[in-house]
Design brief:
Length: about 425
């Protein structure tokens, strides 16, 4: 009774950058393990994809092919929507894969203020799925004990697995101990786990990208495998921390549920990611660029990542440095991330205190609202957020450039007119 448990694959992350195929490679590497070891259950606890929709046909073809290979080998693949790939109207890739029978998504629905989770039976297992909802709403459902595990009392001789995409502390493990940034996001306390029936044998978590807790092998009934690659520079920095400070790496979990208590084993993998970190004071453009070249030359093969922590970078040099780093990123096939410790990058007028805000979307909303106030604009924050969202859209591969941008402009124009107060002047 083995299950491979991973989460936060974030396929589609790093698009247009040297790591754009790292996440799908990691997915394939984990699936190879599943098939080679005859494991029949594969669980992805949310954030399978970076966005609700993936535009790249190269990625799509690989995703479909690997899922078909899993199915053809008799592997039952289970997933839940995560905070990144869910869409309210279920107009997303994960739902499509569910319809195609390539991924099994336990059904859930909101009924009269309660979240009803429906069982998904297969072989010796019953799966329930708790999706990652907007604004961490799933935590409210848990906290209010407003989650219904439909028909759970019917099962007595099957192992019950809850696949949940949410952030929670458990058994003394607090993700913010490992990584400062999780101290800034919503993390629910252990007591909310009491909303989960005792009959649940294992809670397969996703959402926290740092593997939590860290162990080689352990008897436990809840765990975050962590993200194999991650989706941004903070994750890549934590890959370095895992290696340098904890003597571990990225991982996925193999669970054995044949005994009384589940036994989890970490399969540590580099997933072919090489991370270097360089911290120094800014000593001029030439010196920095030469140092960067030297570091990259010494880095091994693989998905190379260089994180630069440069203190006191002169504002007037910043553009030049960034441009060169962008060129190097392409020519040396190395993702280069520059962190600057200089405090003067954001102008005083627009610096906003966000220390009390906990959620990324809340941060965005608060920042926009504050910026509007400080700039003296007379516009609803929602309009600015809508503009940001439209500008963030990517051209689908099969769309024509001119048509795409023309359509984009038609949608932006009334928004811009409203923001600048120039509409209806005729
Ligand atoms: Mn994630």
């Amino acid at each position: 009774m083995l299950i491979v448990h991973t989460a936060d694959l974030h396929i589609g992350a790093f698009s247009g950058r040297p790591l754009r195929l790292a996440n799908v490679d990691a997915f394939e590497e984990i699936v190879d393990f599943v098939i080679e070891n005859g494991v029949k259950y594969f669980v992805v606890a949310g954030d399978f994809f970076e966005r609700p929709r993936i535009e790249s046909y190269e990625l799509l073809r690989r995703i479909y092919r690997v899922l078909r290979v899993l199915r053809d080998n008799g592997v039952f693949t289970v997933s839940v929507p995560g905070s990144h790939d869910a869409s309210v109207r279920r107009a997303d890739l994960l739902t499509l894969l569910g319809e195609a029978g390539l991924v099994h998504i336990p059904y859930y629905e909101e009924v009269k203020g309660k979240l009803v989770l429906y069982p998904l039976e297969h072989g010796d297992f019953v799966f329930y799925g708790l999706p990652g909802l907007k604004n961490n709403l799933e935590i409210d459902y848990l906290r209010g004990h407003r989650i219904v595990f439909k028909d759970i009392d019917r099962y007595s001789d099957k192992k019950i697995i809850l696949v949940a995409h949410t952030s929670v502390k458990f058994a003394g493990y607090d993700p913010s101990v490992y990584s400062y940034r999780y101290g800034k996001s919503v993390i629910a306390d252990e007591e909310i786990l009491q909303a989960i029936p005792k009959k649940v044998d294992y809670v397969a978590l996703g959402h926290i990208h740092f593997p939590t807790p860290l162990f080689d092998e352990a008897e436990l009934n809840i765990a975050y495998p962590g993200s194999p690659i991650g989706r941004d520079a903070s994750d890549l920095y934590e890959t370095l921390l895992l290696r340098k400070e904890h003597g571990k790496d990225r991982r996925f979990l193999v669970l054995d549920l044949s005994g009384d208590k589940p036994v989890a084993r970490s399969i540590w993998r580099s997933f072919n990611v090489v991370v270097e970190y360089y911290k120094d004071y800014y000593k001029g453009y030439e010196s920095l660029i030469n140092e960067v070249k030297k570091i990259i030359k010494d880095m091994g093969e693989g998905y190379r990542v260089l994180i630069l922590d440069i203190e006191g970078l002169k504002p007037e040099d910043k553009n030049k440095v960034l441009q060169t780093l962008r060129e190097y990123e392409v020519s040396y096939k190395t993702l280069i991330h520059l962190r600057t410790s200089s405090r003067n990058i954001v102008s005083e007028v627009l610096s906003i205190d966000l220390s009390d805000v906990t959620d990324i979307e809340e941060i965005e909303k608060t920042a926009v609202a504050e910026a509007i106030k400080k700039l003296g604009l007379k516009i609803e924050p929602e309009k600015i957020l809508e503009l940001i969202s439209i500008l963030g859209e990517r051209k689908p591969e099969d769309a024509r450039k001119d048509e795409f941008y023309e359509a984009l402009f038609i949608r932006i124009k009334p928004l811009l007119e409203e923001i600048l107060g120039v509409s209806e002047q005729r």
